[in-house]
Structure formats: structure tokens, C-alpha cells
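Bumping with the actual sequence this time:
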Amino acid sequence: MRLTIGIAVTALTLTIGATPAVAAPPAYTFVDLGTLGGESSYASALNDRGEIVGSSQVADGTWHGFRWRKGKMTDLGELRPVGINNRGDIIGTTDTSAFLRRGKRLIDLGPGIYPVALNDRAQVIGVGATPLLWSAGKLRPLPLGSVSGINRAGHISGSIGSHAAVLRRGQVTDLGAAAFDRSNTYDLNDRGWVIGWHFSPTQYERGILWRAGRPTDVGTLGGDSTHLTAINNRGQILGTSHLADGTEHPVLWQSGHLIDLTTRGVDPNHDLADLNDRGQIAVSFRPVFGVSHAALYRLR
């Protein structure tokens, strides 16, 4: 593969120190997914069909993978899921290897890869000695330092050196950085929008959205930092942000506005996992001390 490196425009839309305007937020219904018969479970990923994968304890206390769909949790055995696409394909690991699960078939990705993400074409990115792409039964190295997401077109978000980067059709584009010359990515959507972070001048993490290579700081709830978790194909971004008093709340960024999701009933103590195109949010929460359950926030 021929490798070309380009440098993206590094102009930054500054919103540091400002509290963004608040758009009308959605309302949610909360669904506890339960467990496979044991005490705890947690969510890993969510697709646009509302299917959630994660891990759960069974009755004897051991951990199994699960797939939750339409109110039913299915035991996936030793496979510990990392991601699920809109076709229902699942990536995950066992104690010995990494796998792609298609229907009831397990495809061994090899012992030298930890899967990170997959797209709807069942292409899988992961990390081994170097970042890797698994496609149509073959593994090949990627010209990136790390990887975070892959979209339907096969574009891959990651990093090169200490900078966020994206790989498209064999070309790596350096997305640049701000203060302290460091940045990285978390994910990208099918429109090619990439989410990640820069440092602020005071060395706090700032959530960044790159569109066509141009970075936009998504702002905060009045505090110093914002951490982004997931982006969907509607351009909505899920994350957490600090208030002026230092507390952290879940947020949804859309159309230039950062929405405090606690105003619509999302618990600030719940751990965010994923966001789909229907606006549903997968989380893990603690019903009692020392216990975790996977759960879903869905729009009313």
C-alpha cells in the first residue's frame, strides 16, 4: 500500500471558557438489562437496531459475553464482546484469541490481535505489535500509531506520532493539535466526522470534532474539560463534561449545542458506553455498591 501523509488545516473554533447555548433535549426511558443469572453485567457496545453486547456474570459467578435484543439477554459463552455492527456481527476475545461472530459461527482473527472496532462490512481494526486491519480473512498492518474506529467506507481514525489522524484510501492525514502539541481520536462516523481531544492551554482535555479536517471544540458545561465517548451518523456526540464546580455530567452535542443530559433524567453516576443513530444510549450503572448492571436509555 502506498502511504501518503498530509497535514490538515489546524484552525480551531474556540469556545474555551464559554457555556454553550442549550437546545431542546430529548427525553429518555431507562431500561435495566439485568444479568445472565449472576450478580453483575456491563455494556460494551450498541448498534442501530438497539442490540447491546457486553459481559455478565452467570449463576456460578463466572463471566460470559451477552447479546441483548428486544428484552432478551442471550449467553455468548466465553466470548467477551467489544463491538457489534448493524448486521449483528460481533467482535470480542476469549482467553486464547480474538473472534468475529457471524450468526453462530466464530471466525478466529488470530492470537496476535485485540479487536477495537468493526464496520457494517465486517472489517475489523485492532492492535497487536502494530495496528492491524482484518478484512475478508486477511490481516494487514496499518500505517498508524493507534486506531479507534472504522466507518462503512473503510476510513479509520487513530493517531500518528502524538497527533490525531485519519486513514482514507491509503492516505494518512495528520489532524494536528493545539496546546502541548498532543491530540488523539476516539471514533468516527460514516460521514467521516472524527471525534477526539486536544489539550487546553491549562492542560485539560477538550472534546474536539473534526469535519473535513477542521477542528471544533465542542465546549463544556462551564468547567475545564469535556471527554467524548461516541458519535452517530446524525452528528450527535455523546460524552461527559465538567461544570464550574468540578462535577461531571453526561452530555449530548448536536447542531453546535452541548446539552446537559441530567436535565432529561440521565444519571451522572452511570458509565456511558455507546450511542446509536436512534439516539439510544448504552450505559452501565450500580444498583447497589459493588454491583454493576448494563442498561439502555431510549427515547420516549
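The C-alpha cells above came from a reply further down the thread. The chain has one domain: 4-299.
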